[in-house]
Amino acid sequence: MGNQTSPMEFILSDFIEEPNLRIFSFNIFLIIYLIGSVGNMIIIFIILQNPHLWTPMYFFIGNLAVLDMCYISTIVPNLLVNSIKERKKISFGGCVVQLYFFLTMAATESSLLASMSYDRYVAICNPLRYTTVMNREFCLELTITSWVIGLVYSVIHTANTFRLNFCRSNVIDHFFCDIPPLLKIACSDTSLNEIMLFGVGAVLILPCFPLIIISYVYIINAILRIPSNTGRKKTFSTCVSHLMAVGLFYLTGSSVYLQPVSASSTQRQDKISAVFYTILVPMANPIIYSLRNEDLKKAIRK
Known about the structure:
Layout: E1 9-12, H1 22-49, H2 56-83, E2 89-91, H3 92-125, H4 130-133, H5 136-161, E3 171-172, H6 179-184, H7 191-204, H8 208-224, H9 229-257, H10 267-292, H11 294-301
Parallel strand pairs: 1-3
Antiparallel strand pairs: 1-2
Helix pairs in contact: 1-2, 1-10, 2-3, 2-10, 3-5, 3-8, 3-9, 5-7, 8-9, 9-10, 10-11
């Protein structure tokens, strides 16, 4: 993937560049990492220990928790180490591995959120067929498909990114290895990379969001036909957690990946957006689902 003109290591930048705030940022990211890791582990443990939660909805929530635990661990440990080091380096191979797993987790989460929206659609719009449609085999197929999409997406972009020569600089203006900042320091022609970034995303990732929107159009239409206010609120409450997770993930991720590499947004803005979709979203998901889901709250209290 690399050649003689590529560096042996890359230098990463701080998320917070002020030296006096490095310890503060280390403590903040450590707290976020612990909350995210422990929160997702609790969700997984609760679901495994309570047979009444072995339903399609909680199967997907459990898979999302596993995914988020891996997702946050791809970025934050290296960020914590670098936040207290003067020279914030990552080896060429380490950068390849980090980008590969980051893209895998991000693309898989996008697909998994679409699967979860379909689960809610069937539960609310076709409740009598729910157990037949969302059987164990179909849920497993949706989950495996999500992971396959993530792996394919990651392999394509990781290989396409590291075929480039990085002779211009080895300083990445970001706190982790991501495609846009890597393309900015490449001295090779990156036009194919930008085309692939949009093309592969349009085929594998972008369809997930319209599917979520379409599912919720039908869901909201079905909820509005429920005669009682109590029934409408109770039904809609099963979707609120998922909607919040979708909103956090897609709004922050699209602000970086749906613009050209040469776009006018500052790297500072990209870093802030990246913190949301790589760190805060995996931390927030277990909190969102545990606070908004009555069955999970009851299981946690027990």
